[in-house]
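Revision sheet: structure tokens.
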Amino acid sequence: MARRTRNRRLLTAAALTALATGAALLSAPASTAQVTADTPSVTVRPDPSYQQERFEGWGTSLVWFANATGDYPPEIREKLAQLLFGDDGLALNIARYNIGGGNAPDVKDYLRAGGAVEGWWKAPAGTTREDTDWWDAEDPADWNPKADATQRWWVDRIKKDITHWETFSNSPPWFMTVSGYVSGGFDATTDQLKTGSVDDFAAYLAGATRRLERAHGIEVDTVDPFNEPNTPYWSTRLGPDGEPVGGRQEGAHMGPELQEKVLHALAPALREAGTGAEISAMDETNPSIFAQNWNAYSPGTRDLVGQMNVHTYGTGQRTTVRDLSKAEDKRLWMSEVEGDWGDGQSFTDMRPGLGLAQRIVDDLRELEPRAWVFWQPVEDYDNMRPGGESAKGGNWGEIQLPFSCTSQDTLETCPIRTNTKFDTARNFTHFIRPGDRLIKVNDTSSAAAVTKNGKGASLVHVNGTTTPRTVTLDLSKFRHISRNATVTPVVTSADGKLERHDALTVDDRAATFTVPAQSVTSFVVEGVSGVAKDAPLLRKGHTYTLTGVQSGKAVTVADDGTGLVIGAGDGSASQQWRLSAVRPDDGVRQRYEFTNPVDGKRLTVRDNVPVAEPHTGERDAAAEWIMSTTGDGTWTLVNAATGRLLEVGGQATHEGAAVTTWPPNSGSNQRWTVTDVTD
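Predicted:
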């Protein structure tokens, strides 16, 4: 089957239309914010000289909402589909299908609404939780080709909109687990997949993926066998009657050693099943645990993974995973996150919308993902209302409706509600589109991209404060600015959703607009292209110094002419590095080579130690560096051969301390200020 290419018109501010929920794009004057002499101001400078790889898009997992709503009345399902995948809704183009594990037939459902996703197995009549040795992946009778009808209704409904399908697992089926239940082990810190079931689990995932493809005429691109595996989240507790109680969802702990075994079993299982899907891993809950798991994998295991998936429920060490992906030359997804960012269920409070918007900005800037994926934009209204999961209720999801509706319900009796996260998310999904390239920006409250055709740009700015803010877009980093260039603000605030304001004329390569308090504004920039000649910091033939952020001292060739140390920045020849060669343009994965301008020695890594050594005239990955920045003026240098970062060993700050390399860890001793000292 050929991979589908979504044919969707490019959404611009003028093209948006009203949703049935009233989330309309309105015309508005140039600015309605109250401007005073003391109105705070910021200059935001998008810089296309630093371009990420082409953005693959925005997505969602289908559970649990798809499981809960797949048999709802047509008018309810269709409105949901439009809100999620329609051009005027969230306009999502990536979907993650959950391969359910499924509890034993004699176990009464105890999971949250929508959480009991049906497995693809078919147990013999009379099977109980005690019967665990009956399943055979090669026996068609042990598969249920009609499994999971509700989630699969959604597959058929949205497949024309989806450009990347991924399957993933929260838990193996009950008969492959240690506890015998899909909600986790009795000890949440011990491995849940039975060691003797590794091959069966791999065959189960591969077989379900291939059956899904054939049944629905889709092509699954990636398969992730895990979900937050190396965490203590997933556990099962039995009540006095021996029945499970308190479980909320499927989940299974698997430490790095067991993860490796699964990955080594899954690769051949996918080939044998006849699917072209590659492996993604490991959907860990935050970048820190992801890095812990990844660094525990052997090189051979890492080679099996085609796409790195990480969640950002924790936000530390995003740049660690960013640099790991560059070192491995693999795609990186932010594959799941959700949150509340409020104080009790509300559909008008701007704080949840602002919290989500800032999370997206930070993820795009620090992690540099190829895709950004919601956990599930649709949540159970009853579970989120006061008295549900918490006393005050919650704002998880961008859309809420009851997960208890029946075939007799209507939109009046089973209402669909959207909150401010739905509105602010559209400020991103409508204006940063698949094929665009995210670019560097100097402001931590903004994300920017150049359009797929290179003839325009977009910038999304979050003002989380309680006062208006004057934003000046400095477009001087673009090479060409048309005389007719314009900047059109599209504002979401408490006063309106995606309100289109009058286009601003670009004057002296800039445009200014005052955004309201507590708002998210998309700036649609038309008539700009290219990269200004003086925009790139790193330019062939220019000379630089590398100064440690933590130490405040510069990389210096030691007295022996080979070793590298840090020294007071005096700008001497021993501290200067000329950009003498670059790999052909590869965006943020471009490689650079630095040589000393006096003796021609290049910055190289041997046995994990950085040295200045004579240039052989030949390309050498050990002498090539991949540069990363968050736009704050500091950089990391990833060695192309080792994947290790240039750093000051032991976080030292004293004169003569050794410059070393170490795996990425987001430490300030791994960040450098790169200064152009070209004469």
